[in-house]
């Protein structure tokens, strides 16, 4: 019977998320797997988020108010302390889940070597009312540490983590990151446990004005450089090359989207070791920005 299956603690960190919040809560409430609790972490919202949360009547929905406003990853650290479940899952106030997300993922934890289960996602552009699949190839699984730098397609809202793995290895989110805390966490976990994956979409990540900006990408790139400074000594030559390739491509795209052709060209030649060997980068360099924005609407 399902009640004997493991409790899933779902962390929903919210800061002024009233616009999409009820849709996110609904996709939790209507999960086909019913043994869950929702840890709603209110990061000092000043809008109607608490009123929306309170309008839902269920003992499974648990409200916590942060003492002060914190970064996203510090908020997740605090919320983790309130989780009673055997498994931890995450949903943000502007995202949604497929109805059978938990049901599909909980089954894969029958393999006790598995510490993380994740899945594919839909990327939905709110302004254009368009969606696309996140990963077009099969998601990697098993012992993925050697592949994670070249094929990183793990969305935290698509993931579920065995809490025991976090506790036994003293792994948690790093408060110093605002954008790459998920990546840092999953790299650490990939060193110590196996991953499994649901190949079809289990969640929808919503792109809108609040989470899409060049300023945020600048911060993300800065954090990627800082992460490499802290962790580079632990990477082998191949992993170092893969990580640098990922970071440089992210920076290349960001400079181009600032509509600064001269600096994009300078960066292209400065990082030619990584960029010149891929034909797609020449296309990206020479294509007008208004065309790229139509092609890369999910950026």
Helix content: 25-40%
How many domains make up the coordinates? Answer: 2
CATH superfamily of the largest domain: Spore Coat Polysaccharide Biosynthesis Protein SpsA, Chain A
**Helix-strand string:** EHEHEHEEHEEEHHEHHHHHH
Class by helix and strand content? alpha/beta
The top level CATH class name of the largest domain: Alpha Beta
What is the overall shape?
A: globular
- The CATH architecture of the largest domain can be named as Alpha-Beta Complex
**Taking Cα atoms only, what radius of gyration do you get, to the nearest Å?**
20 Å
Strand content: 15-25%
Structure description:
The structure is a single chain. Helix 7 (214-231) packs antiparallel against helix 8. This protein is an alpha/beta fold. Strands 1, 2, 3, 4, 5, 6, 7, 8 and 9 form a nine-stranded mixed sheet that branches. The protein has helices at residues 21-29, 49-54, 72-80, 101-107, 163-168, 181-190, 214-231, 237-257, 261-270, 272-275, 279-286, 289-295; strands spanning 8-14, 36-42, 61-65, 87-90, 96-97, 114-125, 130-133, 160-162, 194-207. It is globular, with a radius of gyration of 20 Å. The chain contains twelve helices and nine strands. The N and C termini lie far apart (43 Å). It folds into two domains: 2-207, Spore Coat Polysaccharide Biosynthesis Protein SpsA, Chain A (Alpha-Beta Complex), CATH 3.90.550.10; 214-295, no CATH class. 38% of the residues lie in helices and 19% in strands.
């Amino acid at each position: 019977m399902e009640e004997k299956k493991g409790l899933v603690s779902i962390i929903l960190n919210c800061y002024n998320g009233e616009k999409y919040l009820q849709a996110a809560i609904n996709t939790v409430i209507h999960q086909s797997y019913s043994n869950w609790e929702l840890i709603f972490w209110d990061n000092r919202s000043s809008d109607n988020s608490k009123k929306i949360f309170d309008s839902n009547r269920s003992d499974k929905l648990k409200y916590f108010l942060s003492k002060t406003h914190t970064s996203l990853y510090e908020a997740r650290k605090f919320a983790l302390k309130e989780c009673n479940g055997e498994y931890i899952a995450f949903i943000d106030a502007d995202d949604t889940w497929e109805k059978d997300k938990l049901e599909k993922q909980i089954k894969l934890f029958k393999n006790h070597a598995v510490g993380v289960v994740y899945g594919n996602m839909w990327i939905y552009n709110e302004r254009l009312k368009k969606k696309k699949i996140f990963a077009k190839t099969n998601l990697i699984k098993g012992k993925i540490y050697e592949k994670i730098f070249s094929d990183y397609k793990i969305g935290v809202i698509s993931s579920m983590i065995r809490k025991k793995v976090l506790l036994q290895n003293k792994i948690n989110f790093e408060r110093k990151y605002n954008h790459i805390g998920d990546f840092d966490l999953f790299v650490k976990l990939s060193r110590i446990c196996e991953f499994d994956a649901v190949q079809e979409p289990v969640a929808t990540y919503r792109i809108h004005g609040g989470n899409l900006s060049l300023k945020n990408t600048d911060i993300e790139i800065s954090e990627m450089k800082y992460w490499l400074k802290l962790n580079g000594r632990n990477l082998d030559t191949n992993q170092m090359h893969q990580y640098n390739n990922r970071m440089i491509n992210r920076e290349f795209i960001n400079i181009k989207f600032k509509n600064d052709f001269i600096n994009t060209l300078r960066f292209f030649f400065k990082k030619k070791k990584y960029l010149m060997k891929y034909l797609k980068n020449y296309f990206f360099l020479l294509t007008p920005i208004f065309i790229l924005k139509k092609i890369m609407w999910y950026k």
